[in-house]
Amino acid sequence: MRYIEVKGLSKTFTVRKRKEKGQLFREKTKVRALDSVSFSVEQGELVGYIGPNGAGKSTTVKILSGILTPDSGEVFVGGRIPWKERREHAAHIGVVFGQRSQLWWDVPILDSYVLLRDIYCLREDAWKKRLDELTERLELGNLLRTPLRLLSLGQRMRAELCGSLLHCPELLFLDEPTIGLDAVSKLALRDFLHEENQKNRTTILLTTHDMEDVAALCSRVMVLGHGNLLYDGALPELLSKYDRVRMIRIRYEDHAELGGLPERCAVSREGQDYLIRYEPSKVPTAWLLSELQKAGSIRELTAQQQNIDHMIAAMYREMDL
Amino acid sequence: MNTIKLYLRSMAILMKCQFQYPVSFFLQTIGQLVMEGGEFLAVLLIVDRFDTLHQWTPGNLYFFFGMMSVSFYLTECFGRGVTGNFPNMVRTGQLDTVLLRPRGVLTQVLCSAIDPRRITCIAIGSAALVLGSRLSQVQWTWWKGLLLIEAIGMSMFLILGLFLIEAIFCIYSVKSVEMVNALTYGGRSACQYPVDIYPRPLRTLFSAAVPFAMTLHVPAACILDRSLYGWPSWTAFVSPLSGLVFFTAVYLAFRKAILHYRSTGS
Question: Which string of b and e fits A247-258 if b means at least 16 CB within 10 Å?
Answer without folding.
Answer: bbebebeeebeb
